[in-house]
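Changelog excerpt

This revision adds worked examples to the README so contributors can see how folded entries look when concatenated. The first example is reproduced verbatim below.
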Amino acid sequence: MRWSRKSFAGLLAFAMLALAGVWNRARLGAEDLPGTDQGRVVLRARFPASGAAPRLALEGQRFQGSPELPCFYERRGFVPAWSEGGTLRREVQELLAALAAAEDDGLRAEDYRPAALARLTAALRSHPEAGGLADLDLLLSDAFLTFAAHLRNGQVNPGAIYRDCALKRDPADLATVLEEALTAGRVRAALAGLAPPHRGYGLLREALGRYRRIAARGGPEPVPPGPTLRAGDRGERVAALRTRLAEAALSDAAEPLPAAEIPDLFDDPLEEAVRGFQRRHGLEDDGVAGPATLAELDQRAEDHVRQIEVNLERWRWLPRDLGRRHVLVNIAAFRLDAVEDGRSALDMRVIVGKPYTRTPMFSSAMEAVILNPSWYVPRSIAVNEIFPKARKDPSYLRRGGYEVLSGSRLRQKPGPQNALGRVKFVFPNRFNVYLHDTPARTLFDRTVRTFSHGCIRIEKPFDLAVWALRDEPQWTPEAIRAGIDAGRERRVPLRRTLPVHVAYWTAWVNEGGTLRLGRDVYERDAELARLLQASSRPKEKAAGGSSANRAIPPRRALPPTLRDGPLRPQRG
């Protein structure tokens, strides 16, 4: 084909016009692009070249965006997530409603700025504008990702604040969670699915709702000050005590207090109600309304709200899957539960570490049960406690069944005096902590049981051995008993390891659905409450003098007459 001069000139002119169109389009910028392309260009420009999360701004406050933001937007090619063609999606309102309800899970709604986001959303619905929609898109995604991270693994990393903590928090791809939530149009359901699925968390969440409602009403009236109240007493203070205990039973979801023929008489049902309250709140259950009981009755509902919030956070530190069969130890409750299919199959009292030799928080897996274990005494205990006694009494080591090994290591042979008792449960952990029997059985009768060097002494070692070895056909209860009676040390490996979780809750709900508030024996609640409230992200100012910023006050100490007396240090 031969080109004429005229046709060549026409082709050249067409090419020049096309190039001019491309140039003008680039020069005019994103505002002249179609809606989706326009949003992509503006969103991409909001991210720094380094690939880091952008800094965001809302109502004059600047803060660092979620580290998940770059991943989320890069995967979707910077297509806006919360608008289509410049129109906001209905999922925006769904997200704002979920953020506003964050307090249902013990988190603070203002950390996610739902009120400010709602104001910006309303303004952009009235006057949509490309830059504002891009900023809102980033802010909404940031709020979702931040709230999701807090629900999934907690606001505070326990490993960063406690040296004696090795809980295994599960990782999660939150950018994928957000993408799937938007694709399915189920934003609120996706967030709800990130909260711990454990029954204990759900029951404690319900208790939080009850205490919030009590706090909103102003809380109950305290019992007027005065002397200790006990069975047989009469008067207006007894009537006030009855009313207060009835309210406490309702808020704790406990057995209701029956109606009384003589309300101002301290009768038998009232005495039992006092005992029930004392058991639920970690006090000695003597049935007497003395200083410690009256002080606990006078605790503000807001203080218990803070306490429950702190313990919901501790649930978020645990693995999502605790195991179909697992052992759960609550240090602050001095309790162990062998759990099967979400329900306690066996429970017992335990003894935990002293405040200066704390039992750590961690997750592991039980590998073996040891019958008639030897105790290889930790060097610190041998040097500081046992050898000084042996120097004063040359027969001390022989009478206690101790033998000195090479390198001055000390071993206590199996037997009735062995500090580990007749059964030991082994699960690897960097703290060298384990569950074991003990010859010091009377200590289980104490209300506050912090007597060990960090290991966990259990009340029913034989029952736990039977439960743990249930899948080992040859280890029937009779065989386990015979193995113990033989007196020889024997390691019995488990065919299937059993997950073990050692945690610290000062507020929990028992198997019957009743709220229990224990003693903060390691004094951890107030500091964690402070960390939860001291977020690095700017907050909207709360209207009025909300109690949300108040830390948990220390639980009042037991008076000398009710406090557990000092004991000599125990072994193991």
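The second example, added in the same revision:
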Amino acid sequence: MSTTLYDKEALSLFAGKFVQQLEPGDLVSLEGDLGVGKTFFVSKCLEALGVKGAITSPTFTIVNIYETEQAVRLLHGDLYRLDDVHELENTGVV
């Protein structure tokens, strides 16, 4: 799926609808330059899932893990800094 949105309000509305379509085990990949709104989108998805509190970019932690009210575990990762897929083992993801 490829979607183009032009403002934060549209992105917020899309995020709320988007998370309703997710099923257990789904993997979502967001691609784009720094500053285009990937973390903003993730924060709006998490808000729609009932997550409260700070939602930050995992630039330095590589992966942030959030538990939702629906007992859904959402992992938000910035994997561009990894040189090898085996480095994921050190993040606790696998």
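Reviewer comment on example two: The first helix runs from residue 8 to 20. The mean pLDDT is 82.
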